[in-house]
From TrEMBL:
Keywords: Methyltransferase, Transferase. Residues 94-232 form the tRNA/rRNA methyltransferase SpoU type domain. InterPro entries: Alpha/beta_knot_MTases (IPR029028), Ribosomal_eL30-like_sf (IPR029064), rRNA_Methyltransferase (IPR051259), SpoU_MeTrfase (IPR001537), tRNA_m1G_MTases_N (IPR029026). Gene3D superfamilies: 3.30.1330.30, 3.40.1280.10. One of its GO terms (molecular function) is RNA binding. It comes from the Bacteria. SUPFAM superfamilies: alpha/beta knot, L30e-like. Pfam families: SpoU_methylase. PANTHER family: RRNA METHYLTRANSFERASE 3 (PTHR43191), RRNA METHYLTRANSFERASE 3, MITOCHONDRIAL (PTHR43191:SF2). The keyword Methyltransferase applies. GO terms for biological process: methylation; RNA processing. This is RNA methyltransferase. The lineage of its organism: Bacteria, Bacillati, Bacillota, Clostridia, Eubacteriales. Signal peptide: none annotated.
Length: 239
């Protein structure tokens, strides 16, 4: 079944530009953003909406469960074409996620960026697929609205130069600057892999490092929490 393939196969999502999601809330978010819903399957016995401008089907519960990317889905399960984003011409701020492999973290940070008005999210290197069902679900639909682009690590310096952004790395490096005093206008901050942080290659291309001040003896924040703090400070710098 095509829906099942989209749920489990990243290459199928890349080739088609589509993903598969479930639930009325995400369906509403997709439609409100102007994304193209290409097909939907509702539970057998449910009223089939006439307002959906795509093929609509009814299926028994076991078939709906097979097609769904989540367990115990009440439906509908639907396929949707993910918007293709371009980097804005003159962003004021951006966040770079490098080699972030958890789709839940990627989706959560896209949601946070959208909520706080961050102009651009850059997925650098081996990041989780932003169109994976888990990432889109974690974004609560923000993945349809937030500007997100992808690049390889070697391409990042040229991208930052083209956008006119100064790149900082969130890292416990010698000489790292307190996030609260860093110049975060016309800047991008890079957040690294959940277990290993930022790569040496990326750090070498940064103008400097920034750290989140914390109580002595505290464990480091996870990627999603650290990203939220960083983006809050970036948003505050624009006030």
């Amino acid at each position: 079944m095509r829906l099942r393939q989209l749920a489990s196969d990243a290459s199928a999502r890349r080739e088609s530009g589509e993903t598969v999601l479930d639930g009325l809330k995400l369906l509403g978010e997709a439609l409100a953003s102007g994304a193209e819903v290409t097909g939907a399957v509702f539970a057998e016995g449910a009223a089939l909406p006439e307002w959906l401008e795509c093929p609509v089907y009814a299926a028994p519960a076991e078939l709906l469960a097979y097609a769904s990317p989540v367990k115990n889905s009440p439906g509908p399960v639907f396929s949707v074409r993910m918007p293709r984003h371009e980097a804005p011409e003159a962003p004021d701020c951006a966040v770079v996620l490098e080699n972030m492999q958890d789709p839940g973290n990627v989706g959560t940070l896209i949601r946070t960026a959208n909520a706080l008005g961050i102009d651009l999210v850059v997925l650098c290197g081996e990041c989780a697929d932003r169109s994976s069902p888990r990432a889109v679900r974690a974004s609560m639909g923000a993945a349809f609205r937030q500007s997100v682009v992808a690049c390889e690590a070697a391409e990042l310096p040229a991208l930052m130069e083209r956008l006119g952004l100064t790149l900082y790395g969130a890292a416990l490096s010698e000489g790292a600057q307190d996030l609260r005093t860093a110049q975060l206008r016309r800047a991008a901050v890079a957040i690294g892999n959940e277990g290993h942080g930022l790569s040496r290659e990326l750090l070498d291309n940064c103008a400097g490092a920034v750290i989140i001040p914390m109580r002595p003896g505290s464990e480091s924040l996870n990627a999603a929490a650290a990203g939220a703090v960083i983006m809050w400070e970036m948003a505050r710098a624009r006030l």
